[in-house]
Amino acid sequence: MNKFDARHQRKLILFVILTALMIAFIWGNSCFSREESGAQSGRISAFLQSILDPAGKIPEERFHHFVRKAAHFTEFAVLGILVAGLFRQIGLRTGNSLRSLPVLTVLLVAVLDEYIQHFTGRGSAVTDVILDFSGGLFGLATALLRKKK
Fold this sequence. Notes:
By secondary structure, the chain is mainly alpha-helical. Helix content is 83%, strand content 0%.
């Protein structure tokens, strides 16, 4: 095995591990009940609001809603970046372009994320799948643009 192969193998393993951890993080958060999830995001929201809106001009409920949605978008953007890297490494190894698989992977994770929430009493919504998928597409696009530089 030459240097390129060993380096390529390490990158592939790293992307597999990081992608799996990110999916576990996303789905793990979906396993929390409505109360647990609300309390967790409420603490983060209160902290961020004390920094970003110390005068309290934005109603707490509205700020909390924005933080929750921004968190979903952000975690799926990170997932998109990781999935892009993973499939790029797989493509380099196999010689296949695998163009649609990263998009389908992000969509599958988003759909299953909402499906998991259905069983925790939090319910699921198509609009949340769209938000998550949009974050994933943003991450995929960011990785693609970075690769072209």
